[in-house]
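Residues pack. One example:


***
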Amino acid sequence: MSLQNEIKNLPNTFTPQKPVVVFGGTGHYGHYIVKSLLEKVLSRNADRARTIVGNKAEIMEGDLIDQSSITKVLRGARAIVITVTAFHWKTIRHVEQIERDAILLLLDKARNAGISRVIYISVYEVRLDLLKKHNIDLAIGPIKLEIEQTLMASSSDDLNWTILGMSPSMEMFFAMIRGDNMMVPGGGPPAGLPAVSPVDVGEITAQAVLRDDLRGQRFRVTGPEAFTFSQAAARISEATGRSIGFKEIPLWPIRIVATITRPFNPYLWQMFQSIKLLNAFPEDFVTDVPKDHERLKETFNYASITLEEEAKRRWGAGDAED
C-alpha cells in the first residue's frame, strides 16, 4: 500500500505543513525515500538532484559539511532522514568528516532547531568483534556504531529517533551480472545473506519518519528471505527468462589492486574490505531474517518486493540488459 493511502492513519501529532528533510536524498536508497515522501532535499548539485528525484521535491543546494547550509535547510522542518554515505571514490578520503563529524553536528543542530523526529539509516548490524575476527578494516563500521550509540544515549525528552539497519540492496545481485554469469568475488557467504529492494526501503523509511510512536527502536530492514548468490542467479533466471549462471572469482587480484592503489585513493581498499565482510556474513543474522521481516510487516503497511519482482521491475520478463 502506498504512503499516500496511509497518511490518514498517522498519529495526531503528524503535521503535514512542516517538511521532512532528507540528507543523502540523491543516493541509492535516498532517492527512493524522497520519491515516497516528496519532501525537501539538501544536495551539493541541485541540477543533478533534480534529474534523480524529479520535480516534486524541493531541492536546496548546499553541503552537509557547511554549517550555514544545515541551519538554513533545517529551518521550519519537522523531521530529518539521514541516509548519508561517503562510500564513493570521490569522497571516501573524507568518510570520517562526512559520516561522523557532519552527522554529529547535524544532530546537535536538529536539537537546537526543535526537530521532533530523526531517522538514521545505518548498516544491518555493527559487530566490531566480527570485523576484528576476519581482519576487516572497514572505516564505516566504527563510525556507524558511534552515531547509533550517540542516538541511544540521548535522553528521553531529546530526539525522537529510529534506526533502520539496512541489509544489502538487491542491487548487488544485478551489479555482479556480466554477460550470462553472476560473477561473485569470493563466492559469497555459504548460508546466504538478506537483501532488500530499494523500493521497500523508500516506503518503510517514509512511513517511519511520519510516525511518532517508534521512538528508540532499531529495525533490521530486509526482504522476505535470504539468498546465496547461486540461488539469486537461479531465481533471477526463472523470473526473467534469461539464463544467468553463477561463477566464483578469486579475491586475490582485487586484494593486489586495492593494496597498490590504497596510498593514492582508499576507495578500492574499502571496497575490498566490504567484499570480505560480505563473504563473512554471520549465519545467525541469516537465521533471523524471517523474524526480522515479520517485525517489519507488523510495524509498517507495505507489500514486500521479492527478488523475482525486483528482477521484473528492472528488466521485465525476457527483456534484460547487461
Q: What stands out?
A: The first strand starts at residue 20 and ends at 23. The mean pLDDT is 84.
